Amino acid sequence: MKPSEWDKIVKKYDKEIMNPLDKRVKNPLFNELKNIKNKKSKNVLELGCGLGRLASKVSKQLLRGEQIVVINAEKIIITGNPKAVIERYKAKTDRGSLNKGPFYPRYPDRLFRRVVRGMLPFKNQRGKNAYKKLKVNAGNPDKLEGEKIGKNIEDIKSKYITLKDLGKKLGAKLG
């Protein structure tokens, strides 16, 4: 914690009356101190590369406690024969029943969230808290600028399918 932030907070309250580190006292100063300690950086990632590699990088950052916003999720690609990729994901969406599940997403942003969820210890509290810090957007609604991860789509020489095309094949109603 920076000393300047601490000085700003302490000026508001009397040092002798309230001890900022004592949790037993209902202390507004303690709440502000706690918020400063819990502040983590917010990363904005613009994606245009392979699904698994990006999801693993994002999941590692989430487990470190960072908040992540992913933009342009429909441009993420899955390398391989497009027909085989569609068949594999179609089998996942058709599995189970309509009432009981498992329910597998069809939209690109939700597909990416599901892949990241598979790389987190989601059944533990730590994984659930990390998963809550992930925001995925199809497109760029807030005109955010972020760091570019991976290669451009033009640089990839193998066969691939984008999440947008996969979502359309799975039945997502995309424009």
Terminal residue distance = 47 Å
- Structurally, how many domains make up the residues? 2
Strand element count = 6
Query: What name does CATH use for the topology of the largest domain?
Result: Ribosomal Protein L13p, Chain: A
Helical residues, percent: 40-55%
CATH superfamily of the largest domain: Ribosomal protein L13
Secondary structure category: alpha/beta
Shape descriptor: globular
How are the strands of the largest sheet arranged? 4-2-1-5
Main sheet? 4 strands, parallel
Any low-confidence stretches, pLDDT <50, length ≥5? Answer: 22-27, 32-37
List the secondary-structure elements in sequence, H or E: HHEHEEHHHEEEH
Residue-averaged pLDDT:
78
Number of helices: 7
Q: What is the CATH class designation of the largest domain?
A: Alpha Beta
Q: Over the alpha carbons, how many angstroms does the gyration radius reach?
A: 21 Å
How much beta, percentage-wise? Answer: 5-15%
The CATH architecture designation of the largest domain is Alpha-Beta Complex
Describe the structure.
By secondary structure, this protein is an alpha/beta fold. It has two domains: 1-39, no CATH class; 43-170, Ribosomal Protein L13p, Chain: A, CATH 3.90.1180.10. Helices cover 42% and strands 13% of the residues. The protein contains seven helices and six strands; from the N terminus they run ααβαββαααβββα. It has helices at 3-12, 28-38, 51-63, 82-94, 108-118, 125-132, 163-170; strands spanning 42-47, 67-71, 77-79, 134-136, 147-149, 160-162. The chain has a four-stranded parallel β-sheet with strand order 4-2-1-5. The longest helix has 13 residues, at 51-63. Residues 22-27 and 32-37 have low confidence and may be disordered.
